[in-house]
Amino acid sequence: MTGEGQRSGRDETEEERADRMWGELIQEVRVAQTGVQILFGFLLTVVFQPKYARLPDIDQHIYIVTVVLGACATGALIGPVSLHRLVSGRRVKPRAVRIAARLTFVGLVLLLATMTSALLLILRVATRDSYVPWLVAGVVAWYLVCWYGLPLWARRRHTTGAENR
Q1: Which pLDDT tens digit goes with each residue over 146-162?
Q2: Is 63 helix (H, G, I), strand (E, B) or coil?
Q3: Residues of the chain with pLDDT > 90: what percent?
Q4: Most CB within 10 Å of its CB: which of 8, 110, 123, 127?
């Protein structure tokens, strides 16, 4: 409590905080999981299209990299669910939340790489114009601003010393 009777933060135990953070993390992961699973499923069908065999080698290599990145992103973003299931009831939730948060961050970085690679491939196939790398760079810059720039700016600007825990 502050001097004026207002609370200065949450009054929760480490376990309560871990429970709350776990719930928040799982909600965030659900959004990312859905996107990466749809993208990955789409990517898996591309190789079975007749046009795939006619793609230049570089585009086939970009496709392979994209599929591998998508598989890795899927693994990282599903990882927290498996982690929770395997450690549930073992009284390690605060540590599990930290591990799951790291896995989610890695999954988001891999999702960024997957989406970048997929966008590059799609735009290269759709048009052979020299502006494709510039379009991809612009979209990646937008992702970086939305996914990392704004959140880091908000964290830095609006976090006080007591909230940095």
Answers
A1: 999 999 999 999 987 65
A2: helix
A3: 72
A4: 110
